[in-house]
Amino acid sequence: MCPIINKIFQYSLLAVLLSLLFACDKVSIPRLTFDDRAEPRIPFPITYAFSPDLVNHTQTVDACGLPYTIPVGEIITRTFLKVGQERFNGVRAEPPVGDAQGAPPDGYRVIVDLNQFLFDPVTLMATEPRYDAFVDLKLLVVYEDPKGTALAQTPLSYHEKVSMWVPALSSSASSCATQQIDGTVEDATEALAKEMVSVMPRLGQVLSPVSTNPYPNAEPSGTTPSSPLPMQNPAQTATPPKPAISPSVQFRTKLVDANRNLILEGGEAVILLIETTNVSGSTIPSAYVELRGTPMLVEAFKRVAPIPMPIGELKAGEKRTAEIRGRIGEVKESLKGELIIGIILSEGLPPGTHTILTEIQPRSLLKRPTR
Fold it and tell me: If you compute the radius of gyration of the chain from its CA atoms, what whole number of angstroms results?
């Protein structure tokens, strides 16, 4: 009796499923792959100029108990070129990476400099070859026109904790599988390269020459021509002035220590104030405060707040003050401190950086003021 009931149940279930299937006009199957539609190309070419310090930079780390030298410079240059080739209308590089010289006549020269790279393993599992590490990559990008004039700059920063598996390739542990280490550096570089690319359309809109128009009273289109313009008689066509370049935001900074003597002591609480104003005519979806400079100063704030620190959306004309609190760590000897503050924008032209110079001393060397 039980086998008959089971058969009836199975056929009934099949009938219900078939009735539901035929009742639908269309069966939609979800996609299991990523959308592979390419981003639109930015309609001008660029030339990368990678600094010698960046190109030659390496860092040796402990992989699976063996030293491994990360080819940091090679990974950064290769990744920037790969991302650029996908997005720009032509990408070249100056020596030693390529053989280009200067900016294209209808494009820009992009100087990429390495400010800091740290690959700091924080944990190494004893039972398996697994890393937890902090990857800290800071770049400075400067944009130049074909005449060599610096137009704007963008500080780029990546700071993430990552987990990797770095096993030995043999029982004798004479070598390690280091692909995940290189891949982690490549992921960090790709994120910064794409952040740089996001700035370029705005740069092109502001700096693109006015298009040639045979009707002098018509409004100029303001788009960048895809090919060099033909020579014209200067008596017939006047050269329009190039629009002035200005950052999308302005900002002011102030560093305040607890006793307000402008000398930072070990263990002292500090506050960094950043007043940012959107001076562009449009909303900036997100902005971030980026810090670099003397590690002791930067770490004083990183221990308390996430860096880069989000400011949030800035509407046109809006002014906003951010406050970052920190505490100076142990100071064993006096030193000069430098704190470099930059603003990272999701859209628009970023401003230059502000630099604060200060003295850092052990607490015991400072005489307390008497009342």
Answer: 28
- Determine the Cα–Cα distance for residues 185 and 260; give it in Å rounded to an integer: 41
Regarding pTM above 0.70, the answer is: no
CA distance 220 to 21: 58
Work out the number of other CB atoms within 10 angstroms of the CB of residue 144: 18
- pLDDT tens for 183-210 read 889 999 999 998 888 877 666 555 544 3
Give me the chain's average pLDDT, please: 76
Question: Would you say residue 56 has pLDDT above 90?
Answer: yes
Quote the CA–CA distance of 342 and 346 in Å, as a whole number: 13
What the block records as the tokens of 63 is: 């992989």
Least confident of 207-211, 290-294, 350-354: 207-211
Between CA 359 and CA 265 the distance in angstroms is: 9
Comparing CA positions, the residue from 84, 100, 42, 321 lying closest to residue 193 is 84
Residue with tokens 């390739």: 169
Give dist(CA 223, CA 213) in Å, integer: 12
Give the Cα separation of 91 and 371 in Å (integer). Answer: 65
Q: Residue 85 corresponds to which amino acid?
A: Q
Q: Please give the structure tokens belonging to residue 35.
A: 């959308």
Q: How far is CA 55 from the centre of its chain?
A: 18
